[in-house]
Amino acid sequence: MAKITFVEHNGTEHVVEAKNGLTVMEAAVKNNVPGIDADCGGACACATCHVYVGEAWVGKLDKPSAMEESMLDFAENVEPNSRLSCQIKMSDALDGIVVILPESQH
Amino acid sequence: MSDQEAMDPQTRVVIIGAGHGGGSVAAFLRQYGFAGPITFIGEEPLPPYQRPPLSKAWLKGEANADSLALKPLEFYAENNIDLRLGVHAVAIDRACKTVAVSEGAPIAYDVLVLAMGARARRLTIPGADLKGVMELRTAADAEKLKTALGAGKTLAVVGGGYVGLEAAASAISLNAKAVIIEREHRVLARVACEQLSSFFQSYHAARGVTFELSAGVEAFVGDKGQVTGVKLADGRTIACDAALVGVGAIPNDEIAKAAGLECNNGVVVDLAARTSDPAIFAVGDLTQRPMPLYSRSVRLESVPNALEQAKAVACAVTGRPLAPPEVPWFWSDQFDLKLQIAGMPFDADEILVRGDPDTAKFAVFHLKQGCIQAVEAVNAAPEFMAGKQLVASQKPVARDKLVDMSISMKQVAV
Predict the structure, then answer these.
(1) Region of residue A38 (left: phi > 0; alpha: psi -120 to 50; beta: else)
(2) Would you call A40 and B303 a contact, using CB atoms and an 8 Å cutoff?
(3) Chain B residues close to A89, C-beta within 8 Å
């Protein structure tokens, strides 16, 4: 189990526990965290699970795949710490990760 | 209904149909702060789950019941959502605002949401009731199909649509054989252009799927009640261990019709997903909805469509402003191919292909008077994402740039 803190655009925090292997997107959806729509259910097909990864955690993640990079390229308000949360798999190394949600997913 | 009334904590929301659409209505209502009681009436024994993986990850054993579930079971109790599973909604009494159900007393509503989805169209030909003749809509269907597939088995797929192609690809990855039998002269005939059809057919053929095109199906033949083959109109019989019928879906709109709601190949709704009765909404595969982008109404069978409408219902009930209509989009995974489609090619007068289908990385753009109406992208995320934005903006696009792979889609889209 690892802890994830989701911070909504308005500052509201949601702290959830996620099993290792679950993606950050799945943890958000299963806990009904608002702001992660994940229309495609994790197929890396829609870019509606866009998050900003807390600076301290960016370096701990695997680099995005070419597919994820192309999807992010066209998402709104993309920053260097932008990721698709369906592509971040939880592990002990990510226990405590903080992700910030964009204002909208479209 | 005014917003004040809508946000009344005594407002009772009843949702018929515990699929992706219905489940999302409940989830968005709670996300948007709706505090009233929500009752779910679902025919299946399972709480809402995702159907798209059924023909893909589920068949291949890469998904389980937990990963399929839209929300964990605790979610419903924690959020005061009464799940009435295995229960059929029998009739809607609009005057009394109640839903009659197969078990127990009628359920009263202030807001009713219809999310009964669609069911697989069945073939009324001899042998259609043989064991091993299947359809794929539910988790139970998928489990039956998974059991029937295995190394060396042959799956006959009647209907070369997305479900059929996805199931065939999954069968091949399980070392089974697959033969697709299609009435039209090409696969995906009703849903994709010639270029895409021919690409998918070649890609499947190269991986062992065989095709019978322009082929009518006369009957399923069997032995001791178990299907053993599909008899074609030309007299040949295609031997199989199981047959999957994927020839489209029919909206489950019977109780809506019986209640006098306006229906036309689905329950007719407006952009807020409201039916002809202001207290009743409808979402998902069940609905005939306006598509202002194309100045017409359509019935779509897709998760993004169900989610968009689910949000619209939650906005209407909680008094939030409605988001502008989205560009409809679809996806399909087959082998290592990711197909993403944005828009619909209504009234298109020109087709432009970007990239080379032989590299399995290309996109087909459908234009109308120089504006993109739809894009079908294979392993081509930038083309899909930029194409979706161009469909929304209806900005004329430079044809020469669009087909030039040396110019990025970012540059094309500016």
Answers:
(1) left
(2) yes
(3) none
What residues are paired with B81 via a beta bridge? B38
Q: Would you call A39 an interface residue with chain B, using a CB distance cutoff of 8 Å?
A: yes
State how far the alpha carbon of B407 is from the alpha carbons of A65, B352, B403, B404, in Å: 21, 15, 9, 6
Same domain membership, residue B215 and residue B191 = yes
| Chosen from A23, A29, A46 to mutate, greatest number of chain B CBs within 10 A | A46
Helix (H) / strand (E) containing B251: strand B249-251
d(CA B164, CA B145): 12
Taking CA–CA distances from B379, the nearest residue in chain A reads A67
> What domains does chain A contain, in order, with CATH numbers?
2-94 (3.10.20.30)
The residues, ordered by sequence, that sit 6+ positions from B206 with a Cβ below 8 Å of its Cβ are none
Instruction: Give the E-state strand segments of B17-106 in sequence order.
Output: 38-42, 81-85, 89-93, 98-101
B69 chain-A contacts, CB cut-off 8 A: 30
For the entire predicted model, the pTM comes to: 0.94
Is A30 part of the contact surface with chain B (CB cutoff 8 Å)? yes
CATH number at residue B281: 3.50.50.60
Residue B323 falls inside a structural domain? no
The closest alpha carbon to A46, from B60, B303, B283, B402, belongs to B303
Each of the 106 residues of chain A gets a pLDDT tens digit; together they read: 899 999 999 999 999 999 999 999 999 998 999 989 888 888 888 888 999 999 999 999 999 998 899 899 988 899 999 999 999 999 999 999 999 999 887 6
In a domain, B331, yes or no: no
ipTM of the complex: 0.90
Please say whether the beta carbons of B214 and B184 come within 8 A: yes
Residue B325 lies in a domain: no
